[in-house]
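Exercise: predict the structure of this protein bound to zinc ion.
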Amino acid sequence: MAVQGRDPVPELPEVETVRAGLAAKLLGRRLAHVELRRKDLRVPFPSGFAKRLEGRRLIDAGRRGKYLLLTFDDETVLLAHLGMSGRMVLHQGPPEKPKLHEHVAFRFDDDVSVAFSDPRRFGLMLLTTVAEAPQHPLLAAMGPEPLGPDFHAAYLAEEFSGKRAPLKNALMDQRVVAGLGNIYVCEALYRAGLSPDRAAESVRPRAIAGLVAAVRAVLTDAIAAGGSSLRDYVQASGELGYFQDRWSVYGREGERCPGCKPGARCRVQRVTQGGRSTFFCPRRQR
Ligand SMILES: [Zn+2]
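Solution:
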């Protein structure tokens, strides 16, 4: 799907959907073979990558922010990021000829395999361990999970205090809250009725509470939509779905604003902030 010239990038709900799909199909299975078809994605694969994973059984499929953490029975953790365009493509049956952009293939027992397809190669696959993962440089400074207990109004008020950066930038900062990107920040700000370019420090406590609720709601809705599309994801094309039908403003420049009365003739607007498109309603969002 193309959204006005630019494909959407996986965020927390998409990664969560991938996690659930992999868990449903692969948990408890032994990884029989890893085939690397190139040396690197965004960075080189770790040395001994295939050797460290082959023969191990997958015992957990977790997620932190936009990262997948696949844990094997020797406590090795495969830390993976889908990047800009990464897809996990599940396949059941004898191995097929690799498709273009499928840079890695993991073949599990019973002829279940997953290929990582990544045309733009911004994806990432590294190895760590259960003990070391929390201190891993990519994870250590990450803020709380937005659907977890540590993301609440008092926390966010503290983070916003003295912060002159635009609200949108503050929410996209993974140190403030994990897993949000352009799509769900736009959606959450729309739902909360907050302007993306006002200073983070200017948001009052009550509005911050509303923002926390809005972030949780847009993510929960998207994950639920992902769950309902999971069957297709696992069995048919094997491709990650996006939940664009559910987006109120993202990718909808010029369309009728769904939250304003039809009589208001309100249209979704787009501006560029920090090189990224922001979609919003100037009437609802202050
Ligand atoms: Zn509107």
